[in-house]
Amino acid sequence: MMAQSLPTSAPNSTGERGFERQRRLRMRNRAVLLVLLLLVALIYVVAIVRMGGG
Amino acid sequence: MSDVAISSEAVVAEAQAAGARVGDFIELLKPRVMSLVVFSGFAGLMVAPGDLHPVLAAVAVLCIAVGAGASGAINMWYDRDIDAIMQRTRKRPIPAGRVDPQEAVSFGIVLAIGAVTLMALAVNWLAAGLLAFTIAFYVFVYTMWLKRRTPQNIVIGGAAGAFPPMIGWAAVTGQISLASIALFLLIFMWTPPHFWALALYRTGDYAKAGVPMLPVVAGARATKAQMLVYTVLLFPLALAPWALGLTGAVYAAAAVILGLLFILAAVRVWFDSGERAARQMFAFSILYLFLLFTLMIVDRAPGLVGGSLA
């Protein structure tokens, strides 16, 4: 019953599901890294502006 | 249990197993709501007297955006039970099973703390304090206290959406003034007719979820009457920035025309027994606020339309 109701487009094997999960986790980690790097750059620029009396 | 119920549970389980996409976290920030909040905050920055370094102004806008997004994420975490019931919200990341509720609330809290801290360090403490108050008001007063208890939820809760221009103003001047309170009141009065227009054609959804929106509790007629009252009260308030010398004649003329059109939209809703006029009024309300703040910026900008600073 449960198996019949599953959407056909969903990954149905454990391997596919694991691969998709790993891919999404990798993308999330990269996004977090990017945000942290941008935050560091932003704080650096803000510090320069504030020191300059901005 | 029906096949449909089993199927939707299977989809949620499948989504949970795959984990969240980056886009799901962006969706938690309610980007469409955020855009209007950011725009009104930016308008507050632009019309405020004084100078703010462009980098710090950009940081202030970023902090307002992230703070609004954080509020949205925490709101989605708290409302996940009713979001799963309502047609409009059932595909949101948490009820759809794409984002774990604990991850969502952690995400919101981290962003809220980050936005307020950055605002305090980069801009000033008053703007940071107002931002913190706005987030707390939206989460604790609107989402957790008022939303499920009273049909006046969006009247009082609407204050949260009205603070951004005041935050922008405080970022530039470091003060709260009569003019910034006028900007606050403008959005505060605009919010009820805006949300009630939406609620009028989503009454069934809100009733099913047990949210006591005015059309659910008092009926369509009483809601339409209140919408009309609020649009009439909004008319002189929209002229306040001009009366206080914040903007020039171009803004005043536009505020009169837009205000009359908004009242006309409410009158059409009053006479319309269907949903069409309410849908049109909801769409127009967004345009109304967007145009008012655009004109405020244009009218105020030096060298543009002979603005008041020119």
What does this 3D model show about the protein?
The complex is a heterodimer of chains A (54) and B (310). Chain A is rod-shaped, with a radius of gyration of 22 Å. Mean pLDDT of chain A is 80; it is low at 1-9. Chain A has helices at 2-5, 14-51. Chain A is built from two helices and no strands. The longest helix of chain A has 38 residues, at 14-51. In chain A, 78% of the residues lie in helices and 0% in strands. Chain A starts with a helix and ends with a helix. With 54 residues, chain A is mostly helical. Chain B is an all-alpha fold and 310 residues long. Chain B has 16 helices and no strands. Chain B has helices spanning 3-18, 22-28, 31-47, 54-78, 80-83, 101-122, 125-146, 153-157, 159-162, 164-173, 178-200, 203-209, 214-217, 220-243, 249-271, 276-300. Chain B is globular and about 60 Å long. Residues 306-310 of chain B have low confidence and may be disordered. At the A-B interface, α2 of A face α1, α4 and α6 of B.
Largest interface: A-B, 23 and 22 residues
Ends of chain B: how far apart? 69 Å
> Beta fraction of the residues of chain B?
under 5%
Number of strands of chain A: 0
Percent strand of chain A: under 5%
Number of helices of chain B: 16
Any idea what the shape of chain B is? globular
Uncertain segments of chain B of ≥5 residues (pLDDT<50)?
306-310
Percentage of residues in helical conformation of chain B: over 70%
